[in-house]
Amino acid sequence: MTSLDKPTEDTQAEDTAQQDARAVTEAALFEAFGGVRGMVETVLPGLLFVTIFTINKDLHWSAIAALAVSVVLVVVRLAMRDTVKHAFSGVFGVAFGVVFAMMTGNAKDFYLPGMLYTLGLALAYIVTTLCGVPLIGLILGPVFKENLSWRTRNPGRKKAYAKASWAWGLILLAKCAILFPLYWWANTAQLGWVLVALKIPPFLLAVWLTWVFLAKAPPPIDVFAEMEAEEKAEEERKAAQAQAAGSGETSGTAGRHRK
């Protein structure tokens, strides 16, 4: 190997490591946010509600259809023995919207719980980041098997989580700045179609920015692997101590027999 070959190999190794880190980040984001299927489960109930309401202006049928499709999505997940957290969150969100709209008799109120949740989530991203514990890190830490190690042991990763949380918070606030005025000024169909249109693009933008920030960040510290290594080392230490103690007893017994 010449001195000219070494930098090339080092560069290739760094590129491979970066590609691996990006692949891990993509897989973690896909798992955390549900991927394409999770997006479909998020959009479909609201889309069905606004479609039916636009056609017949019937709050009850629109609400029943939205709730029914949410339940079907959960049943399909259960039948396939798949993760149901995204489908269940969709059912609860739709159920709250249905109850609220039925209580007030105003079809626009079907969307209000979800809008309030979006506003609360935006504030949570911003407040937790200001407090030094960015929410996106709390969400993705267990997925990356790093838990909260990034807070004290991985400052570069903490900085990336802070940037990502700012992105999520500001994007969701911008979404709220569009939706809440429409809640007061637009009719139910107009609000519904705008809300459906704003379901996926802001989400994809926030996920993409999160990927960009984390792909450039230091790799996560696998605290589970560290714990397993510590347990294995402790077991080996105890085994060595037991073996040493056994050897000492054997030597002592042999010495007494010689006497």
TrEMBL record:
Residues 240-259 have a biased composition (Low complexity). InterPro entries: UCP010219. Residues 232-259 are annotated as: Disordered. The chain crosses the membrane at residues 59-80, 87-104, 116-144, 165-185, 191-214. Keywords: Membrane, Transmembrane, Transmembrane helix. The keyword Transferase does not apply. Pfam families: DUF3159. This is Membrane protein.
